[in-house]
Amino acid sequence: MITGKNYIGNKLSANGSVTHHTINPKLNIETSTPFFEATEAEVDEAVTLGWEAFKTYRKIPGFKRAAFLNAIADEILALDKELIEAYTTESGLPEGRAIGERGRTVFQLRSFADLVSKEDWRENVIDEAIPDRQPLPKEDLRKTLIPLGPVVVFAASNFPLAFSTAGGDTVSALAAGCPVIVKAHAMHSGTAELVASAIIKAAEKTGMPNGVFSNIMGRGRTVGTALVKHPKVKAVGFTGSISGGRALFDLAAQREEPIPVFAEMGSINPVIITSKALDKRYADIADTYASSITLGTGQFCTNPGLILTVEGDNTQAFVQDLAEKTIAIEAQCMLHPNIKQGFVENGQSVTSQKGVEIVGVVEGDLEPNYAASLIATISGADFLANPKTGQEVFGPFSLVVKCKNEEELLKVINNLEGQLTGTIIAEEEEYANLHDLVDALENRVGRIIFNGVPTGVEVCPSMQHGGPYPASTDSRFTAVGANAIKRWVRPVSYQSFPNELLPDALKN
Amino acid sequence: MITGKNYIGNKLSANGSVTHHTINPKLNIETSTPFFEATEAEVDEAVTLGWEAFKTYRKIPGFKRAAFLNAIADEILALDKELIEAYTTESGLPEGRAIGERGRTVFQLRSFADLVSKEDWRENVIDEAIPDRQPLPKEDLRKTLIPLGPVVVFAASNFPLAFSTAGGDTVSALAAGCPVIVKAHAMHSGTAELVASAIIKAAEKTGMPNGVFSNIMGRGRTVGTALVKHPKVKAVGFTGSISGGRALFDLAAQREEPIPVFAEMGSINPVIITSKALDKRYADIADTYASSITLGTGQFCTNPGLILTVEGDNTQAFVQDLAEKTIAIEAQCMLHPNIKQGFVENGQSVTSQKGVEIVGVVEGDLEPNYAASLIATISGADFLANPKTGQEVFGPFSLVVKCKNEEELLKVINNLEGQLTGTIIAEEEEYANLHDLVDALENRVGRIIFNGVPTGVEVCPSMQHGGPYPASTDSRFTAVGANAIKRWVRPVSYQSFPNELLPDALKN
Questions:
Q1: SS3 breakdown of chain A: % helix, strand, coil, rounded to 5?
Q2: Which of A65, A155, A488, B371 is deepest in the core (most CB within 10 A)?
Q3: Do the chains contact at B495 and A449, CB–CB below 8 Å?
Q4: Domain Aldehyde dehydrogenase: where (chains A, B) (predicted)?
């Protein structure tokens, strides 16, 4: 059923001659289907169809868009084993994870369907006229949110379902009334095509206009660049590396008409552990964090890549214990060879810096795309002196910084780049003294976790997934939760309008 | 009382040697005070003070920030005649306008004071824990909005009070908890210094940290560039020309850490008048629009610079009547010689294009900075063929486009760049046929007005002042109304937090 073709609107299309294969990282072999990179003309056709579809799709009532989203969820579930097999084959992730992530994807679809089945997500405001106001009468003025136009979504490699073809960016944009053109991740093109086929089926069954969704294949940057530069594209969503996200942000900012790019990029997610917490329960903390660091082979944007401590009696014991427990967890496969290569290179880059000591690393021969988990340590002074020690190592890696005192710890936090999350592990008797720490973290992160782990991102209204640059390109928005829809809409005011011409949400 | 110096925090400072004078445009002479351009060191000092002030100011409770804003309003009123005199001298605008605009400025200050005296503007969300949820427990998660950091505000020349030193950008940023560094408009530096002195007095009286506000002088782009590139600046507000706003947007996007720029820029504010409306009441419409076009010498961002009609029996009579009534209104002074020069040059550029006919223009000798109001006309086909006919002519100018039919009219609208406003003048019996027109306008503008004029921007929650590029650089936000505060804040989530460490707004 996987054809290797693009979906240009409802039509399968493969007019180009450039192809690529996906890789089964566990077997370290290419899969058999050639995937056809979209040509310039196919890219233009997809966006133009999206633009035409926008004219009607933006006006389709919320409950019908909700039916479309629910139908996508149904069609994804109907793909059943074929989808799970493509997912596990192309990602190297286990079946349990595939099923869990499919559940999250379906939940996101149904959550946004619920959200837009009523109109109150649009922040509707009605200010009625005051004809006898002095010195001037006040006109009737009403405001709602309307969709921006066609949105391009770049799929994430590390969530082949939940942040990919029918993932959070796509579903929030479709919910808002924006057609979506997905640039499939080249390393899970088969999974992408299957999910795209589910979206197209759902669109046809629920009577959505042709062009409301397209799925574009391609390796390298040609196709993505053409999409972001296309004048009919009005916004971009991206999840991935800092270099990739920044390149798209720059392209979008340099357009004649700049467009918003919401890129969710790198983060090392600092975890601050007080020495009291280590004194009381370092072994428990080491247990919890060994699991968190290696979860999904460390391939989460919220992976705890940096642990900050103030050196005390049990710091060294904790570091040892964490390292032992981390490397005791069976080595797992990474998403694809490029991710493995990046993990090795960036890990070596950090561990070769002055003052960095490897405390534990998985030794011996591993299968080609399996990751050797690694725990290293460094002093606060060395960490502060050298920005290279703070670079992201995407994978099962964490660097423990041993600060000499609280002051140095705060300096380290204030010196960090923007992060998705920050975590505090502390004892109850210390809470009253933690205000400065919370303050410092607030300025650097989008979410602060107390006595927990940063991995695990709840889909709910109070979730903030995004943070100061480079965690994301616009910290004012979130990529997860109901408010993710706000990235793709803008307010319009209607002054002194006849009731019949107002959008339904604003009528008397 | 006007010293010509910068306010670097609470301190008057003039370490530089570059000076400029403001101009009395009515007399066409320079005013006497030399204003000192801030040096690079003064710029850095102002931003660094702002950064230091941010650490405490962001934590000051809302009711205290409200007291600060109300005190600014009081101090502005206390400047009394001195302020009105500086305003009218430097702007050429009449005293009535000065008093009206001061009223608006005070109203904005008090509105934002009201808004932030309670904490619900922060969109607080509390999702409580569900410990027994299956398959995984749900953690307690709460979200609120926190300020971004120091904000740089570029003052608008056309609103020396309401969109300037203590104008909408400044007050919304201060309300949010962001220190503000204003780059004063060079052509009303004296007015700016007086208002800055009121802000500083208010800050001292209400115990705000030094650096919560600075006022930076300068002509040209040196000082503004240094401000936008400063790493401790976290957002920018701007009101002015497209070229100015775009230059700042580009600078901000090219930073190592890109920052949001909200620039409210050019707009020609299309007004669509149906031929039925012209048949029934063209003389009334001409009256209303002659006033709107010349209001404030046409120097409003919502000035109706483009009138779209479908040619009918009374179109020519309307155009003649509009031209006669517009040029019958006494010529008025423009803000400064550069604005006058731009008005003349851009007007000549438009009227020299193929197919443009001048229907009426104020003739004879005018004082140097006074504007000769001008009404011109063009066919829909010529307008569509030549983008230069759609450029903004800032001042009392309007171009009437005569389309041959509805289809051409819609084509003209779809072809327009983004606009702040669009207006529809129509008869009640036509309403049922106007859905396509409203649809087309929705995609191009931020506010649609029915049977009214675009000039006059109400300060209320339902106001949208901003639109697709180039009306503004981010159509998702507004420069006027309560939501203007959203430009300067970002969400933060708190997961499993002890009650005592939560921000007050999120506590149990």
A1: 45, 20, 35
A2: A155
A3: yes
A4: 19-467
Dist. CA A251–CA B417, nearest whole Å = 20
Residues 6+ apart with CB under 8 A from B486: A476, B145, B477
Of B257, B452, B493, the CB nearest to A464: B493
| Maximum alpha-carbon separation in chain A | 84
> What residue type is assigned to position A79 of the chain?
L
Q: Determine the Cα–Cα distance for residues B422 and B416; give it in Å rounded to an integer.
A: 11
What's the residue count for chain B? 508
One-letter amino acid identity for B356? V
Tokens 């005199």 belong to residue? B85
Read off the pLDDT of residues A38-52 as tens digits, 9 standing for 90 and up. 999 999 999 999 999
Among A320, A326, A318, CA closest to A281:
A318
In this prediction, residue B1 has a pLDDT band, given cuts at 50, 70 and 90, of confident
**DSSP class of residue A460?**
S
Is residue A33 helix, strand or coil?
A: coil
Between chains, do A126 and B462 touch, taking CB under 8 Å as contact? yes
Tell how strand B261-264 and strand B235-239 pair up. parallel
How many cross-chain Cβ pairs, A to B, lie less than 8 Å apart? 183
Structure tokens at A139: 């006109």
| Rounded Cα distance, B239 and B163, in Å | 7
Of B250, B260, B500, the CB nearest to A476: B260
Residue of A nearest to B127 (CA): A462
How many residues are given for chain A? 508
Q: Which residues of A are catalytic?
A: 264, 301
Query: Which residue is closest to B473 within chain A, CA to CA?
Result: A258
- Residues B192-250 have pLDDT tens digits of 999 999 999 999 999 999 999 999 999 989 999 999 999 999 999 999 999 999 999 99
